[in-house]
Amino acid sequence: MDTGAFFAILMFATAFLCLMAGFPVAFTLAGVALLFGGIGIIATNAGVGDLAMDERVLTLMPERIYAIIQNEVLLAVPMFVLMGVVLERSKVAEELLETMGQLFGRVRGGLGISVTLVGALLAASTGIVGATVVTMGLLSLPTMMRHKYDPKLATGAIAAAGTLGQIIPPSIVLVLLGDVISTAYQKAQQAKGNFAPEPVAVGDLFMGALVPGLLLVFLYILYQIIYAALKPEAAPPFPPMTDRAEERGALIARLVRALVAPILLVVAVLGSIMTGLASPTQAASVGAIGAIMLGAWRACPPSDHQAYSKGALILAVGAIALMSLIVLGKLTDLSANGSMVLRSIGFLLAVIGGTTIGFAAWRLDRSKSLRPALTATVTITTMVYTILIGAALFSLVFRGLGGDRAIEDWLGNLPGGQATALLVTMLIIFVLGFFLDFIEITFVVVPIVGPVLLGLGVDPIWLGVLIAINLQTSFLTPPFGFALFYLRGVAPPEVTTGAIYRGAIPFVIIQLATLALIAAVPALATALPNLLRAG
Amino acid sequence: MAVRLLRWLEAINLAFGRVAAFAALALVLMQFALIIALNVFRIPSIWGQESLVYINALIFLGAGGYTLLKEAHVRVDLFYSQMGERARAIVNLVGVGLALIPFCILLWWFGIPYVVAAWQNLEGSRETGGIPAVFLLKSMVLVFTFGLTLQALVLAIRSLMTLSAAKPGQDASEPNEMKP
Predict the structure, then answer these.
(1) What 3-state DSSP class applies to B73?
(2) pLDDT of A212-258, one tens digit each?
(3) What's the average pLDDT block by block, 10 residues per block, for chain B (180 residues)?
């Protein structure tokens, strides 16, 4: 083995061990990189083996950070995070879960099914496993236990639903993965001499993940229906709440607010990306604004009838103004060349819309949920970016030692070619998923193995979807899965850890089956993006 | 005495955090305004588009230290969550000394010449109509380093205080449950 490869492997092992100590990931990666950067430079000067590390690699660090600043794809991260956090903090998510539970609760297994659906809808906006599992665990587990749900079924459904946010677009995982894979794909194509490859966009990965994601939701629900049919006592229906007799009108208003509006919001965000109307970043900002308005609607006090109607009216007028503005802009020419009258109407609508957004932000702030949401957005975004910075230093040194060439030699020359290389990579990622978060794996592992696999002819979107589902499965697998840890943290003591583990296993089997299916039929992931690209 | 110093140091990062929170809201509003301006009124704005990059940099580079203060830089907490207070203090002290401070030194060492070079020719945007302040954007690298260095010192002092069993004083950080 050549000396560089030896040091590179040692570096990886060291990083892994040091991470286990529990110091923040971003800085641990940077620290290990510095250690091995130092070793590499000293060893090169001392002429150890055939090591040839350029001592200038470390000087590139500020330039790397500047490149991260300029990455416009990642702008979607803070906006999607804001959207998700606002929905969570303003209790829109909570109300959605409650309302769905009431709708489906009368059916056997209905409560578990509504957990799956809410997970699919809302996790979609944050993609943060811990937050989703904790929220849903706190909200629905007590209700399910009270109605004598089988703890295994209840915890399995919650943990699995929490991980759906990884795969169902628009998730942060897919944004980060899309960015990394797109870079890796360009590298792989350039290595082949193709200097103008068709770029892989984050939107393509969103579309690629849509069918597999919905398939998972379908299978989760199917499993719960079958389980409830075979063991009726495990998932009893729960009686409609009699103490909350509402007027018909109030009930409809609540359904619209709690159910229809959040669904419309997510569909609008996804739809505008799918149809090419907006980039993921643009759609994310629309989603965040929508979330603020929804949150404000939720924050209007229902007890004070007059104030509630007034607030809801203002928000409705603003939303209608904004929508008509967009339609008007599509149908007519509002540019400086167009009619003065239409342009004035347009500006008026814009002012009304803008004022309403301001009102919504103010309303949300008064209910004490805007500032915590903004703070959470800042810390989550910074956490993601700081790992990216730490991982950038790590990759600089790893490449400087020749680690990328070592991996390429090894992965590229496995017997069985592409299939084996892919399988080995998937296994490595699966095991790493027990210990590391998706951010570290995406920023550290994927840039190293990605170009090799893509160079072997693996489809980039297929690869992205496989990695995402693989990680999701890993997070759900006992005994190390992250989702299970988080659920353990919020589950009442009478729910045993054994029950949580056993409850997760059927969902892990569903995951593995889906993973195998997509591995066997890549079209499940690639057909939709190709269709949309052609169209 | 030490507690007062810590409060002072943390106040700086808390201020950075407030600016970043404001920037997060501004980012979303700006992007939305740009969509309306471009798609409805056909007013393209390179300046506006570039401002998003500036605002975003203000968030994630401005709040590096703040996020550490809020205990929100993700950790692999498989073992860390099981540890006692003293063991955690040791992890943090060793981590600051061997990883975080060396990282900050690297960023100061190579960052200062990098930023000075950008200031010397008051580097502007490559696009015509862009924001002529790339030198400010590049300076954010040092703002990040500054915030991190401050908070690294705070974390080290706090860990030392825990280890010497001195009363650590009022902890300004609150647990953040938003871990991915």
Answers:
(1) coil
(2) 999 999 999 999 999 988 988 888 877 665 445 556 666 677 777 78
(3) 85 96 96 91 90 96 95 82 90 96 96 94 80 91 96 94 68 42
Mean pLDDT of A313-322: 90
Contacts of B29 in chain A (CB under 8 A): 289, 357
b/e per residue A168-187 (b: at least 16 CB within 10 A): bbbbbbbbbbbbbbbbbbbb
Is A346's CB within 8 Å of B79's CB? no
Q: Is the dihedral of CA A379, A382, A384, A387 positive or negative?
A: negative
Q: Helix (H) and strand (E) counts for chain B?
A: 7, 0
pLDDT for the residue A266? 83
- C-beta separation of A468 from A185 below 8 A: no
Q: Do A61 and B140 touch (CB under 8 A)?
A: no
The pTM (predicted TM-score) of the whole model is 0.87
Distance CA A439, CA A382 (A): 12
Distance between CA atoms of B155 and B137, rounded to whole angstroms? Answer: 28
**Coil, helix or strand at residue A476:** helix
Helices (H) and strands (E) in chain A, counts: 25, 0
Pairwise CA distance, residues A272 & A262, whole Å? 15
End-to-end CA distance of chain B: 37
**Rg for chain A, CA atoms, rounded:** 25
CA dist A86 and A370 (Å) reads 7
Alpha carbons A200 and A183: distance in angstroms, whole number:
9
State residue A364's pLDDT score. 92
Task: Pick from B39, B40, B94, B104 the residue to mutate for testing the A interface (most A CBs within 10 Å).
Answer: B40
ipTM, two decimals: 0.90
**Contact A383/B68, CB-based, under 8 Å?**
no
Q: Are the beta carbons of A187 and A505 closer than 8 angstroms?
A: no
**Could A31 and B73 be called an inter-chain contact, meaning their C-beta atoms sit closer than 8 Å?**
no
User: Minimal Cα–Cα distance from A6 to chain B, Å?
Assistant: 22
Angle among Cα B1, B7, B12 to the nearest 5 degrees reads 135
Residues A380, A384, A386, A390, CA torsion sign: positive
Q: Which of A59, A129, A430, A255 is nearest to B180 (CA)?
A: A129
> Which phi-psi region, left, alpha or beta, contains residue B169 (left: φ > 0; alpha: ψ -120 to 50)?
left
Report whether pLDDT(A200) > 60. Answer: yes
Do residue A282 and residue B110 have CB atoms under 8 angstroms apart? no
Q: Of B156, B176, B172, nearest to B89 (Cα)? A: B156
Residue A136 in this model has a pLDDT that exceeds 80: no
* Residues recorded for chain A: 535
Size of interface A-B (CB pairs under 8 A): 243
Touching B: A residues 299-338, CB under 8 Å: 325-326, 328-329, 333-336
Residue A131: its pLDDT value, please?
Answer: 66
